[in-house]
Write a structure and sequence with these properties.
The protein is α/β, with parallel strands linked by helices and 291 residues long. It contains nine helices and eight strands. The strands form two sheets. Strands 3-2-1-4-7 form a five-stranded mixed sheet. α1 links the parallel β1 and β2. This is Glycosyltransferase family 2 protein. It comes from Agromyces albus. Belongs to the glycosyltransferase 2 family.
Length: 291
């Protein structure tokens, strides 16, 4: 049976949801799971009720951010496949991991799978959960160039080649970078409309901190991953989009430009520009890395 290393990330603020998500992993059939619960600024060993037997724990005394927290859990689990699950998500089907691993085995070109995300109470899922450019039917599968990060399945070898999640980002756009780097390994990032993960629909209320990181990480995304000549085109296109989107929201636009400036002034971490072959593959697949 496939062996899946599972990293569950939490801050300990949703104990019932965390318990439900971990139980949905332990109930999986047709795979062997090795699970670690990573506490970002919280010690999972102190959970009440205690986590199930066999679930490893990692206490990060400081909240390192979402991507860094996930990365810290990877060395603690074994398996040729990795699965990342946020604490407010869970797997409705006990065959999810088995079906996902079969998909990876039958289609070796796949380097990342994001499932279709549904609200467990039946609320209509927001379109932002569908990473395809043309949203359409949420059950329709296809190539993608970003991912919703709350439930992601990957071959471990591909994850290692990408360098993992973008530690410096803290929050926002790490799913775009991971998908881009999957493409740069010669693989494909895939949205699987026939695999289902559950996550409640929440109010996407935004705040100044969100707008700042959104802009900073957009600049960092380009600086870290694009050939130098494409960096100003990508950042410029997104600057124009945000100005048009938030022209009537000066507070949001002010916070966004504060992050935009930080994106140029602050060091983004390791630069690994994608090859021109990857730029071409992404272009013919439907989305050149310019917008």
């Amino acid at each position: 049976m496939p062996r899946v290393g599972v990293v569950v990330l939490t801050q300990g603020t949703r104990p019932d949801d965390l318990a439900r998500g971990i139980r949905s992993i332990l109930d999986q059939e047709g795979v062997v799971t090795d699970v670690v619960c990573v506490g970002n600024g919280w010690d999972p060993a102190s959970a009440e009720p205690p986590l199930p037997a066999g679930v490893k724990t990692l206490h990060l005394p400081e909240n390192l951010g979402i991507p860094a927290g996930r990365n810290r859990g990877v060395p603690l689990v074994s398996g040729e496949v990795l699965f990342f699950l946020d604490d407010d998500a869970f797997l409705p089907s006990v065959r999810f991991l088995r079906d996902g691993c079969r998909m990876l085995a039958e289609r070796p070109e796949l380097g990342l799978i994001q499932p279709r995300v549904v609200d467990p109470t039946g609320l209509v899922s927001p379109r932002r959960w569908i990473p395809r450019i043309r949203k359409g039917d949420p059950t329709h599968s296809g190539n993608v160039f970003s991912c919703w990060e709350g439930a992601v399945l990957m071959p471990r070898a591909v994850f290692d080649r990408t360098g993992g999640w973008a530690d410096p980002f803290f929050y926002a756009h790490e799913g775009i970078e991971l998908a881009w780097r999957v493409w740069d390994t010669g693989h494909v990032a895939w949205y699987a409309g026939d695999l289902e993960a559950a996550h409640p629909v929440i109010d996407p209320a935004r705040h100044a901190y969100y707008y700042r990181l959104n802009a900073r990480n957009r600049v960092w995304l380009a600086r870290r991953n694009l050939p130098a000549i494409l960096v100003p085109f990508y950042v410029g296109s997104w600057t124009a989009i945000q100005v048009l989107r938030w022209a009537r929201r000066p507070a949001a636009l002010s916070a966004w430009f504060a992050g935009w400036r930080a994106g140029w002034r602050e060091h983004p971490g390791e630069r690994r520009p994608m090859s021109w072959r990857t730029v071409w593959r992404m272009t013919i697949a439907g989305r050149p890395p310019l917008v």
